[in-house]
Amino acid sequence: MGRTDRATRTIAAPPAAVYDALLDRESLEAWLPPDGMRGRVERWDPRPGGGFRMVLTHLDATGAPGKTSDATDVVEVRFAELEPPELVVQQAVFEADDPSFAGTMTMTWRLVATAGGTEVTVTATDVPPGIDQDAHEAGIASSLANLASHLETAG
């Protein structure tokens, strides 16, 4: 595979708060689903080697069918590396019959303190070829906007 997608956003919150939102089940359900989706975590184990299973449901599957079913994307995520409050590395595998969505995608969340809060850079490597690059990068940017909104209104 080998493709890399990324997005960056500065969030008006300290790195520790951003890191905590990456490892809190309820927070993750609130902000991770990009626009047009909702998410539900079915299993949660926030430690290195642990992970979670998330069901993402398309609010309108017309024109953007899911990977697992017409309306859903189911993803198994393993926490490969956790370095508070600077780094979260996840390995994600989508449940899909279509081989173009197969493989393990690595999502690296890098948190860097800035004068305005925290610069969050998400880098997705080994992105399955069935995932449209523009749509994926827009989805990551949407999740980051949701994260910013979640933290900036909570704090």
UniProtKB/TrEMBL annotation:
Q: Where are the transmembrane segments?
A: none
In what residue span(s) does the Activator of Hsp90 ATPase homologue 1/2-like C-terminal domain sit? 12-152
Q: Which family does it belong to?
A: Belongs to the AHA1 family.
Q: What is the name of the protein in this document?
A: Activator of Hsp90 ATPase homologue 1/2-like C-terminal domain-containing protein
Q: Which InterPro entries match?
A: ASHA1/2-like_C, START-like_dom_sf
